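Figure caption, in words: inputs first, then the predicted bound structure.
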Amino acid sequence: MEKLEDQIRILDFPDLGDERGNLVVVEGGSAIPFDIKRIFYIYGSDSEVVRGSHANLRSEFVMINVAGTSKVKVDNGIESRIIELDRPRMGLYLKNNVWKEMYDFSPDSVLLVLSNEHYDPEEYIRDYETYLKTVIK
Ligand code: TYD
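Bound structure (thymidine-5'-diphosphate present):
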């Protein structure tokens, strides 16, 4: 059983900005620890909404609040942790097989998500009890 601290990582992207403003680059294989195959973004979610509530058999993710803030609860069936995404230079890397819930979205939240896999609904585990059975053997 892997430790949660080995399954997630906080990434701190350098700011390449200058007097004209900020510039953050996230390249697959360097700042992002995988080749990027999919990008999606979540915005317009109310503060009471909980999104995610799933784990992925293969997909890894990097989540970045490029605007606004949100919280991500990560859980591996044994340990859990809450990470606040509160700046555009911060990324949260999640390995596959980590349960995640995104919530507490600020009105201006734009949560950008990068993944190493194309979308495949078959690799999503959306039931927490099923998730526990797959990770705790
Ligand atoms: P869902 O996984 O429920 O979103 P969240 O993780 O934010 O809770 O996805 C919502 C809908 O969008 C669902 O019908 C599946 C679809 N979807 C795709 O088609 N491709 C994707 O890459 C994602 C993330 C979702």
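The radius of gyration is 15 Å.
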